[in-house]
């Protein structure tokens, strides 16, 4: 498990009225990480602007799948399998799912039939 938090350096910027405002730098485009494990995902265009998203067709922008661009393949499959285990097989309960991925499993449960 790698889930380390991305820390941004707050910067103090003096305003015209002498007040100091702490500005959190947005930094460069951060790469999209999986919402559960934080892994950098394939298939998602990270850059914005002319050379980025706009040139790509819709299907190229993000994987055209459930949780595409949100979860990595591994966690997505996991969520779907867990959802199926709960909804179809009934051998798991939502309480068995970790808090972090529970939301996604619930979402997947709505999609699996
Ligand atoms: Zn993941």
Your description of this structure?
There is one protein chain. The chain is of the alpha+beta class and 113 residues long. The chain has one domain. The protein has helices at residues 58-61, 73-89, 99-111, and strands spanning 10-14, 20-24. Strands 1-2 form a two-stranded antiparallel sheet. A hairpin with a 5-residue loop joins strand 1 (10-14) and strand 2. The structure holds zinc ion. Belongs to the eukaryotic ribosomal protein eL34 family.
Unreliable spans: none
Number of domains: 1
Q: Give the overall average pLDDT.
A: 77
End-to-end distance, in Å? 30 Å
Task: Summarize this structure briefly.
By secondary structure, the chain is an alpha+beta fold.
What's the structural blueprint in terms of helices and strands?
Blueprint: E1 10-14, E2 20-24, H1 58-61, H2 73-89, H3 99-111
Antiparallel strand pairs: 1-2
Helix pairs in contact: 2-3
Bound molecules: zinc ion (ZN).
Q: Top keywords for this entry?
A:
113 residues; alpha+beta; two-stranded antiparallel sheet; 3 helices; 9% strand; binds zinc ion; ribosomal protein; 50S ribosomal protein L34e; Ribosomal_eL34_C_sf; Ribosomal_eL34
């Amino acid at each position: 498990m790698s889930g380390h938090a991305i820390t941004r350096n707050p910067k103090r910027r003096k305003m015209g009225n002498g007040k100091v405002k702490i500005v959190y730098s947005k930094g460069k485009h951060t790469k999209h990480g999986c919402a559960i494990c934080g892994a950098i995902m394939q298939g998602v265009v990270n850059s914005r602007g002319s050379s980025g998203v706009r040139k790509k067709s819709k299907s190229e922008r993000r994987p055209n799948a459930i949780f595409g661009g949100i979860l990595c393949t591994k966690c997505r499959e996991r969520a779907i399998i867990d959802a199926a285990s709960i909804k179809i097989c009934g051998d798991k309960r939502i309480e068995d799912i970790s808090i972090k991925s529970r939301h996604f499993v619930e979402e997947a449960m709505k999609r699996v039939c």
